[in-house]
């Protein structure tokens, strides 16, 4: 493992848990906001699709494939212009943030410091290079700072609210609730 990667890891595991609190919170909010956006995307596809069978098939696609379809549906939907523009802007933001969510959700992450002395809470999140020594890549590839993630999550929350503003709940939409024991 490259020396820089180990330096970040050793600093990370020596941190008191309270220093990781801001990261736990923001990563959790990122995932929760995307869960809400996934649900809203599905509801809107069902709501605005003219073909229920095709809509059901689209719901099985990854979010990155559903978002452009939703965008097309919203563009042709009968919505007030300001609502339509707000929802399209929200969809565009979500489309641009999907890669960040996938990177955070599906990769080995390392939370570390931009400063060598590791003082205070970690201030960035990255992907560690855990490839063999023959790899040309070394160290950690930064993903985002705490500030950048907070800004993204705030914008995701706003995007979810914009999407929710045009959802019409219908009786056929149901909520899956675990059986009580």
What is the secondary structure topology, with strand pairs?
Blueprint: H1 3-13, H2 17-48, H3 52-58, H4 63-76, H5 81-106, E1 110-112, E2 124-128, E3 140-145, H6 146-164
Antiparallel strand pairs: 1-2, 2-3
Written account of the structure:
The protein is mostly helical and 181 residues long. The protein is built from six helices and three strands, in the order αααααβββα. The chain has helices spanning 3-13, 17-48, 52-58, 63-76, 81-106, 146-164, and strands at 110-112, 124-128, 140-145. Strands 1-2-3 form a three-stranded antiparallel beta sheet, sandwiched between helices. α2 (17-48) packs across α4 (63-76), α2 (17-48) packs across α5 (81-106) and α2 (17-48) packs parallel to α6 (146-164).
Descriptive key words:
60% helix; 6 helices; 181 residues; mainly alpha; three-stranded antiparallel sheet
The number of distinct helices, counting runs of at least 4 residues, comes to 6
Mean pLDDT value: 82
Largest sheet: 3 strands, antiparallel
Number of distinct beta strands: 3
From the alpha-carbon coordinates, what is the Rg to the nearest angstrom?
20 Å
What can be said about this structure in brief?
With 181 residues, the protein is mainly α.
């Amino acid at each position: 493992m490259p020396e820089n990667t180990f330096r970040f890891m050793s600093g990370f595991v020596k941190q008191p848990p309270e220093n990781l609190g801001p990261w736990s919170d923001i990563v959790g909010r990122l995932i929760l906001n995307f869960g809400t956006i996934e649900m809203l995307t599905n509801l809107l596809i069902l709501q605005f699709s003219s073909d229920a069978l095709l809509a059901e098939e689209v719901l099985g696609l990854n979010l990155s494939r559903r978002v452009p379809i939703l965008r097309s549906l919203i563009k042709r939907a009968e919505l007030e212009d300001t609502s339509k523009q707000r929802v399209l802007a929200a969809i565009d933001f979500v489309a641009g943030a999907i890669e960040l969510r996938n990177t955070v959700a599906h990769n080995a992450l390392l939370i570390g410091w931009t400063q060598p002395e590791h003082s205070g809470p970690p201030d960035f999140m990255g992907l560690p290079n855990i490839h063999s020594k023959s790899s040309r890549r070394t160290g950690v590839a930064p993903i985002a700072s705490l500030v950048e993630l907070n800004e993204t999550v705030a914008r995701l929350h706003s995007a979810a609210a914009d999407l929710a503003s045009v959802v019409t709940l219908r009786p056929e939409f149901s909520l899956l609730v675990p059986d009580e024991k």
